[in-house]
Amino acid sequence: MRVDGHTHTELCPHGSGEATEKMVQRAIQLGFQRYCITEHAPLPPAFSQQYAGDPTGITEASLRLDQVEPYLALAEDLQRRYADQINISVGFEVDFLPGQVAWTRQFLDQYGPRTQDNILSVHFMRGADQRIWAIDLSAANFMTAFGEWLATPQRVFEEYYQTVWQSVNADLGRYAPQRIGHMSLVRKYQDACGLQEPLNAGNLLLVDQILNRLHQQHRELDLNLAGLYKPFCNDFYPGREISTRAQKLGIPLIYGSDAHDVASVGRGHHLIKTLING
Question: Is domain 3-277 annotated with CATH 3.20.20.140?
Answer without folding.
Answer: yes
